[in-house]
Design brief:
single chain, 3-stranded mixed beta sheet, 5 helices
């Protein structure tokens, strides 16, 4: 089954851990994404999401132009192996309370799956189709 491979985002967007939160938010806007994988010494070590920015920085009054993304990133990265099903990913997101999962192949990150990706997938495979009059 190739469902996760077909559903995930393969073009991984990353940012360095020493980038400011403000620049991180700007990159998310430019790249039209809700999360970025965080790199340290060439390794993806965490994820930062829009929720992290709002709850861990903005709500606490952080200086977004000075505070670094490493102060709000989420680690370790929640992940799922590529051969698992979209339903497995849905269940894992619900159990962990996350909206993003790294997709791994033999432990290496090969993609990123968001709750939006799953919504699109389930809409595509659901029957019967609901139409508007």
């Amino acid at each position: 089954m190739l469902a996760l491979q077909e559903t995930m985002t393969k073009n991984l967007k990353t940012i360095r851990q020493d980038t400011t939160i403000q620049e991180t938010a700007r990159r998310m806007k430019e790249d039209k994404v809700s999360s970025l994988l965080v790199e340290r010494d060439g390794q993806m070590v965490a994820i930062v999401t829009e929720t992290d920015i709002v709850r861990k920085a903005v709500a606490r009054g952080a200086d977004l132009g000075k505070a670094k993304v490493e102060t709000i990133m989420s680690a370790p990265i929640a992940s799922i192996e590529i051969q698992r099903t979209p339903q497995d990913a849905h269940d894992m997101m619900a159990d962990l309370g996350v909206r993003h999962l790294a997709v791994t192949d033999k432990g290496a990150i090969v993609g990123l799956l968001s709750v939006r990706d799953l919504l699109v997938y389930f809409k595509r495979v659901s029957e019967p189709r609901i139409t508007q009059d």
